[in-house]
């Protein structure tokens, strides 16, 4: 888990391949399941409805009962009791990334993320700083926190905290 643009999907895919686990990105799963982009869903139904559907996906993924790396949407752990459910059903890793790097990645991102769409660089910087300040209190409850410069070097550390299902 971590803020949008921190690399959850990229690192999650690499970790899943390394461990021979399944991989799922909740945002991609959402878009395939509901046949609509998250941006379009936000426009039509709003964030509250999105968070409800996102939570349903979380329960659905845990019903699969297999070894899986799940890249959550950036806000998923911060709503309802989602983080408690995630920690109860698996191990969590927070990919901690600086505001500066998040802003650079998001500003140059070709994706149209609903929460950052249309913001200037300065607006985006303020937005990321404020939202990250709020979300970090959730992210920091992860079983493992990895600083951005250590993501790739920590595969063994990550592997050591995972509980493999027989």
What this model shows, in words?
The chain contains seven helices and four strands. By secondary structure, the protein is mostly helical. The chain has a two-stranded parallel sheet with strand order 1-2. A two-stranded parallel sheet has the order 3-4.
Short description:
This protein has 166 residues and is mostly helical. Helix content is 54%, strand content 10%.
Total individual domains: 1
Q: Examine the coordinates and then state which fold CATH places here, giving the name of the CATH topology.
A: Rossmann fold
State the distance separating the first and last CA atoms: 24 Å
Q: Helix content range of the residues, please? A: 40-55%
> How are strands sequenced across the largest beta sheet?
1-2
Beta fraction: 5-15%
């Amino acid at each position: 888990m971590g803020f949008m643009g921190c690399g959850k999907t990229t690192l999650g895919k690499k970790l899943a391949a390394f461990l021979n686990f399944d991989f799922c990105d909740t945002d991609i799963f959402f878009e395939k399941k509901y046949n609509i982009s998250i941006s379009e869903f936000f426009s039509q139904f709003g964030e509250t409805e999105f968070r409800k559907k996102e939570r349903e996906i979380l329960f659905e993924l845990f019903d699969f009962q297999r070894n899986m790396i799940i890249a959550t949407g950036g806000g998923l752990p911060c709503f309802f009791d989602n983080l408690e459910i995630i920690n109860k059903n698996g191990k969590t890793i927070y990919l901690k990334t600086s505001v500066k790097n998040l802003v650079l990645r998001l500003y140059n991102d070709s994706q149209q993320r609903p929460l950052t769409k249309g913001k200037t660089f300065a607006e985006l910087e303020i937005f990321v700083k404020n939202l990250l300040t709020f979300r970090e209190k959730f992210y920091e409850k992860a079983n493992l926190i990895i600083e951005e410069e250590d993501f790739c070097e920590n595969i063994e550390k990550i592997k050591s905290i995972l509980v493999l299902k027989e």
